[in-house]
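Researcher: I've been going back and forth with a colleague about how Ig-like domain-containing protein might be arranged in three dimensions. Neither of us has a model we trust, so I'd like an independent prediction. The organism is Coregonus suidteri, in case that matters for your notes. Sequence below.
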Amino acid sequence: MWVLIWAALLLSLTERTTCNKQPQTPPPTTASPWTITFSPAEITAEKGLCAVISCTFSHAENFNPTAAIWFKCPENGKCDQDENVIIHSETPSKAQEGYKQRVSLLETDLTKKNCSVIINNIRKNDAGEYQFGLLSAYTYSKKVKITVRALTQKPSVLTPPLTEGEPATLTCTAPGICSGTPPNITWTWRGTGDNITELRDNTTIQKREDLTSVTTSHFSTLTFTPPQLSTTT
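Model: Here is an independent structure prediction for Ig-like domain-containing protein. You can compare it with whatever you and your colleague have in mind.
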């Protein structure tokens, strides 16, 4: 009898202790030192022009990055594989053949923690996701996406007021603001009697780069003197 009473008391005390026990607050999580930020995370580029991936990254304090690597993710499988490398800052030969000479970092000094990259002469198969990593250390899980659409931008021509007998300069600016293969700009002059004259190889390049963007303008100028109209008396 006493044994049953003693067991009942113990059970009652255990239940009361359990009910009064406050839930423990989980310890605060430590933020990872390995972060990456894309601005923006989705990019739309036009075929034949370029795409600039603007990004910054951070890493553990005791780590010294030696090389930056960008990967083009396949539709299936892991991104960070040798066959997916599009640029390798330490060993350029590791890049896929189709991306060599088309991809470059905007900042090669990794201590500045800038991973921005430019892809020139955009092709349809450049569409997809891309991932950034540091050699022998870490591949960042976040990805950036590039969408490629048909070229819609057109050249623009600046025409000043024309005066008989006064030199005038026409300026044709090609679409796009990126480096890469310079466009072929051809001036065509249709004279009297349907005679056609073409002027080529007169393209000038203006380039400006900073740590987050790059702009390159290709333009051509044509200077001529409008003839004076003959008058009859």
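Researcher: What would you highlight for our discussion?
Model: I'd start with this: The mean pLDDT is 80. After that, consider the following. The chain has one helix and 17 strands.
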